[in-house]
Amino acid sequence: MLPFLLSVGQDLRVTDGKIEDILNEEKGSRVAGEALYFLSLDWRNSHFKYEQDHLHPFEKFDGNKPIAVSMEDWRNWRGNRNRLANLHSLEGRSNASKSDMRLVDYYNDMNDSQKEEFRRQAFIPEDVSLELENFNEFYEKRKEILTVKIRQLLG
Description:
Layout: H1 3-6, H2 16-23, H3 30-39, E1 50-54, H4 71-80, E2 87-91, H5 92-98, H6 103-108, H7 112-122, H8 135-154
Antiparallel strand pairs: 1-2
């Protein structure tokens, strides 16, 4: 049983509400850290230190909003930028070099095998643009993937 489930309450049933609570956790929280840890167990190297990294950089939501995005959507995106569906585990040195690079640029700097590995490890949806203008679609589809993965972890 995963430790972060115990922090949700005494009822150990896996419910959609509990999974939603986990997905709404924010960067830096114990629950987000433990969720990312368990989601990365199949590829994590115990010799490296990993950090919680924003896929779409936090800072990119502080600048000008994309023209095609409404103010209401932009406010919602800014509210979701720090949640689990926009986070993944990244080795510390890689995180430092990635910094606030746009996700699409970070991805495009990789060769084909690195792209494939990144998509697998970070649960990147295949059929969604990685441009910030498509954040909502990316976020919702990644949330669906994480919901399935968390449900599998919790049994």
